[in-house]
Amino acid sequence: MPRIEEQRIDGSGHGKVMFLPPMEPYGAPLLAGVFRSIGYDAHVLEENEATLALGMKHTGGGECVPCPTTTGALLAAMQERKLPPEKVIFFMPTACGPCRFGQYAKLASIIFDKLGWGQIQIMSPSAENAYEGVPEKARMRMWHAILVGDIMRKLTHKTRPYEKNPGETDQVVWEWMAHLVTAFEQEDVDPVQRILADAVDAVAKIAKRDEKRRWLAWWARSMCALTRLSTTRFVVALRSLVARQPWLLSASGSYTPTICGG
After folding, report:
1. Up-side HSE of residue 109: CA atoms within 13 Å toward CB?
2. pLDDT for 175-233, tens place per residue?
3. What is the reported pLDDT for 188?
4. Domain of 15?
5. Is-contact 124 93, C-beta < 8 A?
6. Which residues pair with 19 in a beta bridge?
7. How confident is the model at residue 262 (pLDDT cuts 50, 70, 90)?
8. Residue 101: which CATH number?
9. Residue 74 clears pLDDT 90, i.e. is over it
10. How far is C-alpha 256 from the chain's CA centre?
């Protein structure tokens, strides 16, 4: 049997459903849009306390939070949708190095086998070869989507601490995120630049308080720092307790060395 990261999925999934882990709330839906543009029925998994608890039941307890929450999210989707395992693709990239992220796909495969879902196909391109195996025409679009996701997240964190009307930043940002997702679903992504510029203008028009907060940067392993379940409460707590403007590391900063070929 070939190593997980050496497995290839040709064509557009042959009628299968693809699930992407919810590791980055802004980039993940854009990546799903890219996969849909090349024919995959791609969806971002939902994560919450229940999916985390489900994932914890099937992991050892010593893994970083994204491991049980992403695994649990897929297990929950399988249970709720009652999908045949042979009709499911799980997109879970891998990487070398000391971080346990490199073991996520392998652990997921073991769990699926134990549950009788060994027919789930895992698409797990590796950082060792700049994610070779992802359809060629999609690779640069995926990189483009990651960059745009970073911009939308940074717009949110730069604006939300100063908004006069609580919740307005998130509302505006996600309205434009929907337009961006639609744009990435098309083969021609040229409109993305115009839509992104319009989104920046829309966020700039949000009514803000006239004050200035100090920056508080949070640097952690990318998946721990960016996954919504571990990030949202942390950012909200920081904003309310110490009145700081949060600044998280970018997804693109994590992937730059590998997407460019090392």
Report:
1. 19
2. 999 999 999 999 888 899 999 999 999 999 999 998 877 766 665 555 555 566 666 66
3. 87
4. 4-129
5. yes
6. 43, 90
7. very low
8. 3.40.50
9. yes
10. 16
User: Which residue bears the tokens 């829309």?
Assistant: 202
Q: Which residue has the higher pLDDT, 61 or 97?
A: 61
Query: Would you say 67 and 59 are in contact if contact means Cβ atoms under 8 Å apart?
Result: yes
Tokens of 58: 């099937």
Would you tell me how many other CB atoms lie within 10 Å of the CB of residue 213? 14
Taking the C-alpha atoms of 139, 109, 22 and 143 in order, what is their torsion angle to the nearest 10 degrees? -10
Does some domain include residue 237? no
- Taking the C-alpha atoms of residue 137 and residue 54, their distance in angstroms, rounded to an integer, is 36
**Domain-embedded: residue 104:** yes
Answer for the pair 40, 18: CB distance below 8 angstroms, yes or no: yes
DSSP string, 165-217: STTHHHHHHHHHHHHHHHHHTSS--THHHHHHHHHHHHHHTS-B-S----EEE
Side-chain-facing half-sphere of 152: CA atoms under 13 Å? 31
Spatial distance between the Cα atoms of 144 and 146, rounded to a whole number of angstroms = 5
Place of tokens 């992220």: 101
Residue type, 204: A
Number of domains observed in the structure of the chain: 1
Please give the backbone phi and psi of residue 35, each rounded to the nearest 5 degrees, phi first: -65, -35
- In terms of Cα–Cα distance, which of 31, 11, 15, 35 is closest to 23? 31
Residue 219 lies in a domain: no
Contact 107, 71 (CB under 8 A): yes
Cα(171)–Cα(4) distance, integer angstroms? 39
| Within a domain: 58 | yes
Give the position of tokens 């999934």.
Answer: 13
State if pTM tops 0.85. Answer: no
